[in-house]
């Protein structure tokens, strides 16, 4: 049913699994004995966070932040809004921010600066998708799953007006969906 609204699949479920395994192994090595605080940025990072963290074979802790900048549309509002903060103190901790996508970079710049201001020992970013053509601020992820073109993507956490996050793959929505629903 949802599949009929997808123009094209860009990253399959199997590719996401394989990439998560690869990134999980890299993080296992990089963070062995560091007990990093893995921070999921809700809501978009939920599927990738689950996929990735189960593949890290080392002690980690998990916490969650809710921030939003898109407010339902297809382009960034430019204003990052904190809706729920962390429960854990980050002072002296090694932090790994987990995101579904970095586009303009505003969300991650805001989060990284905030966590460094709070005296985190280190802040690294892992993102499932990077859209480098969308960047308006100077920030890069440390670990990237897939670099994709500047199209409006949905699935595996990525939403259009809160829908399609539950697709098990990443794809491009048919244009008629924006026209009728947007
Ligand atoms: C999306 C996405 C990233 C951010 C990336 O979140 O999940 O967090 O935008 O865009 P940027 O690089 O231009 O800042 P959104 O604000 O839509 O909230 P959501 O995760 O609840 O969908
Ligand atoms: Mn998000
Ligand atoms: Mg969104």
Explained architecture:
- The protein has 4 helices and 9 strands; from the N terminus they run βαβαβββαββββα.
- Helix 1 (13-30) packs across helix 2 (46-53).
- It has one domain (2-70, 78-177): Rossmann fold (3-Layer(aba) Sandwich).
- The protein has helices at residues 13-30, 46-53, 106-117, 175-181, and strands at 6-11, 37-42, 61-68, 81-84, 94-102, 122-130, 143-147, 153-154, 170-173.
- With 182 residues, the protein is of the alpha/beta class.
- A 6-stranded mixed sheet has the order 4-3-2-5-6-7, with helices on both faces. The protein has a 3-stranded antiparallel sheet with strand order 1-9-8.
- The relative contact order is 0.20.
- 1-O-pyrophosphono-5-O-phosphono-alpha-D-ribofuranose binds at residues 41, 43-44, 68-70, 76, 99-107, 159.
- Residues 41, 43-44, 68-70, 76, 99-107, 159 line the site of 1-O-pyrophosphono-5-O-phosphono-alpha-D-ribofuranose.
- GO terms for molecular function: guanine phosphoribosyltransferase activity; hypoxanthine phosphoribosyltransferase activity; magnesium ion binding; nucleotide binding.
- Residues 25-160 form the Phosphoribosyltransferase domain.
- Pathway: Purine metabolism; GMP biosynthesis via salvage pathway; GMP from guanine: step 1/1; Purine metabolism; IMP biosynthesis via salvage pathway; IMP from hypoxanthine: step 1/1.
- Its EC number is 2.4.2.8.
- Its cofactor is Mg(2+).
Spatial ordering of strands, largest sheet: 4-3-2-5-6-7
Strand content: 25-35%
Helix content, binned percent: 10-25%
Tally of discrete structural domains: 1
User: What is the level-2 CATH architecture name?
Assistant: 3-Layer(aba) Sandwich
Mean pLDDT: 94
